[in-house]
Amino acid sequence: MVNEDSLLNDVSAEKISLGKHNHRPRNGIEPFDPGLVRSTNINRSAVERRVAGLAGRRSVKGEAQAAWLLKALTCIDLTTLNGDDTAERVKRLCDKAAAPLRADIREMLGFAGERVTTGAVCVYHRFVAIAVDALKGTGVPVAAVSTGFPAGLVSYDIKLKEIESSVKDGAGEIDIVITREHVLTGNWQALYDEMRGFREACGDAHVKAILATGDLKTLTNVARASHVCMMAGADFIKTSTGKEAVNATPAVTLVMARAIRQHFERTGQYVGYKPAGGISTAKDALAQQVLMKEELGREWLEPDLFRIGASSLLADIERQLEHYVTGRYATFHHHAIG
């Protein structure tokens, strides 16, 4: 089992720097390297063996678990991406993002005077300006899904215009979807050119590249797409839109985390990671955090390098933290997300 004391020293309630974003230099744009892409291959059996034993070998409990969950809360991109979204729903979500933890729980945890927020609010372009206005003064950025989310099958010119429009409305982060066809047909140059254009259109806004890993068929494709997007300047690589049949699995997290590590070792450039889709419980969040720490290190537990795209996750984390400080479990509706 993992040593809980060492985890607590790394991610403790005293050192957690809640809601604060470090400002490291952005990932740069490199020339396309087809040799690196061709040489990338993933052994699925080895990946599956690595992730299969995680649940049995890792345990984070008590005060250490509370600290990790509090940190996870600050890394959530609180998300609503539904066809029936309304301005009022988005405003409620923003209120929750700015104060995600009830005041009495925060006080019992020793953070009465601290600002605790989620990492961002993630919405469709239609609601960017509304969210920016609702979050004014909170320090919480707005992330806009873009480029024909979720399928990404509109024209390239429209994708660029959508990015530019969201940036103009105040989005500080843009979650783009790649063209899966480029991956499935092995057209890596086209994927690089597309991603580079997206990065340039974002300007100062950070760009998260959604790979839609459930559509990419193989872990080798996931790894190769990760490298191409990082070469082209992605600030984050992200698993899924949340609309695919398979989303953020531990195997995909391992493959993408190792691609990030290889990119860092090769270039010295930091790239963040965002699992999204199907992460709805505190246990799910802890599993993702443990993998990030083991594969990438302590730095990748901060919101400038790690986000979790989720909606219902926040309610379960708040519920678990309430249990930690009171010894009682509340019903889920007691911790509505917005």
UniProtKB/TrEMBL annotation:
<comment type="pathway">
    <text>Carbohydrate degradation; 2-deoxy-D-ribose 1-phosphate degradation; D-glyceraldehyde 3-phosphate and acetaldehyde from 2-deoxy-alpha-D-ribose 1-phosphate: step 2/2.</text>
</comment>
<protein>
    <recommendedName>
        <fullName>Deoxyribose-phosphate aldolase</fullName>
        <ecNumber>4.1.2.4</ecNumber>
    </recommendedName>
</protein>
<dbReference type="GO" id="GO:0016052">
    <property type="term" value="P:carbohydrate catabolic process"/>
</dbReference>
<dbReference type="GO" id="GO:0009264">
    <property type="term" value="P:deoxyribonucleotide catabolic process"/>
</dbReference>
<dbReference type="GO" id="GO:0005737">
    <property type="term" value="C:cytoplasm"/>
</dbReference>
<keyword id="KW-0704">Schiff base</keyword>
<dbReference type="InterPro" id="IPR002915">
    <property type="entry name" value="DeoC/FbaB/LacD_aldolase"/>
</dbReference>
<dbReference type="InterPro" id="IPR013785">
    <property type="entry name" value="Aldolase_TIM"/>
</dbReference>
<dbReference type="Pfam" id="PF01791">
    <property type="entry name" value="DeoC"/>
</dbReference>
<keyword id="KW-0456">Lyase</keyword>
<dbReference type="GO" id="GO:0004139">
    <property type="term" value="F:deoxyribose-phosphate aldolase activity"/>
</dbReference>
<dbReference type="InterPro" id="IPR011343">
    <property type="entry name" value="DeoC"/>
</dbReference>
<comment type="similarity">
    <text>Belongs to the DeoC/FbaB aldolase family. DeoC type 2 subfamily.</text>
</comment>
